Amino acid sequence: MLLLSKSANCQVGGFALASIAWVLCSISTGLPQWRVWYLNETVYTERTTAFVGMWRVCIYHQNSKTGSARVCHEYTYHDSFIPLDVRIVQHLLLISNMLGLIATVATIFALRNVYAGNAQKTDTYNPFVISAILNIVASIFVLLAVLFNYFSVIHKAGIAFPPSFHMPLYPPNQRIGIANVVASLCALMFLGSGIIFISYTSPMEKQVFPEI
Q1: pLDDT one-digit tens code per residue, 170-206
Q2: 109 in a structural domain
Q3: What angle do CA 71, 22, 190 make, to 5 degrees?
Q4: Which domain holds residue 176?
Q5: What is the pLDDT of residue 12?
Q6: Structural domain total, the chain
Q7: Does residue 97 lie in a domain region?
Q8: Residue 24 to residue 11: CA distance in whole angstroms
Q9: For residues 193 and 163, what is the distance between their CA atoms, to the nearest angstrom?
Q10: Is the model more confident about 209 or about 24?
Q11: Distances in whole angstroms, Cα of residue 44 to Cα of each of 39, 41, 155
Q12: Residue 159 pLDDT
């Protein structure tokens, strides 16, 4: 931890890490590949794959003659057919995105104050504490979203899509999608940036405990 707190240069790295985490959080929120449903897997029909996301479902019809065709249907948390687990993940991801954005802005102000010498001259003051807390909370929320989706897939939870979507209530087979991997990486980056920010040591503290 002491290696991380030698100067604010580490916090610049934490800012870069948090910025990437926020971008990944935004990307994972919009990705449809949270759940992968395999439909019509028999020897008599063409294989159909559906990517079920938090805001849309995309159906890929694979045909040996015409290739693959994609049809996407969008929805919001106002739609009545959205189950509780999806609603929870939607809100967790939205809150995480907002926290990540606020933390990024707070980090910019903290870095400006540190490098401009405007930070408080007390040995206990950490100008990055707000950014650290927000990023750690965002990490927890993203991780909860990943776990909610994971357990929904493990328990083979279904979704009562409208008839116009041409989707079954329960797929014959489903698995975790790539969006879970992106979101998990995002959660780790948020957590790592939060640890870096909270490890900042002010110049006053370095004078009290000089290096040998």
Answers
A1: 888 899 999 999 999 999 999 999 998 888 776 554 4
A2: yes
A3: 125
A4: 3-31+77-205
A5: 85
A6: 1
A7: yes
A8: 19
A9: 44
A10: 24
A11: 12, 8, 28
A12: 92
In whole angstroms, what is the distance from residue 201 CA to residue 103 CA? 19
**Residue 58 forms part of a structural domain:** no
Q: Supply the pLDDT for residue 103.
A: 94
Query: Residues 6 or more apart from 158 whose CB is under 8 A from it?
Result: 168, 169, 170, 171
Residue with tokens 């957590």: 191
Tokens coding 112: 């400006």
- What does the block give as tokens for 171? 């797929």
The pLDDT tens digits for 6-57 are 455 777 888 999 999 999 999 999 999 999 998 876 544 667 889 999 999 9
Eight-class DSSP state of 44? T
At residue 117, the pLDDT reads: 64
* Secondary structure percentages of the chain, helix, strand, coil, to 5: 55, 15, 30
Residues listed for the chain: 212
DSSP 80-146: TT--HHHHHHHHHHHHHHHHHHHHHHHHHHHHHHHHHT-S---TT--TTHHHHHHHHHHHHHHHHHH
Per the domain annotation, does 151 fall within a domain?
A: yes
Tokens of 179: 């969006």
